[in-house]
Prior knowledge:
The chain is α+β, with helices and mostly antiparallel strands. Helix content is 35%, strand content 35%. Strands 1-2-3-4-5 form a five-stranded antiparallel sheet.
Amino acid sequence: MKTTLFVAALLAFPPVAWSAGKKGETHLTMDQLPAAVKATIEKESAGAKVEEIEKETEGGKTFYEAEIVKDGRESYIHVSQRGKVLKRETAKQERKVEGAEKEEPGARQR
């Protein structure tokens, strides 16, 4: 009975169950961004393709992370809600940070 209810809940609410990879993370399009964030990402990605944008909340602070691909190289920028660049990372640095998050004690493994 419990299994049936669980499966029914997953089928009834798939956006909640599968919408984000990490807790506090939402995938967005450029059109969904605040104007200041959009302007910064457009400026930072000039001549490149924006592959993915996520709105994230960590430690009570919200920011936007954009994956930018230029000349086959991935990079990431973190932008505040007011449009300020908080951090720039290479793909290698991003993978290192992601790996460290998975290894933290008490962190859930995917």
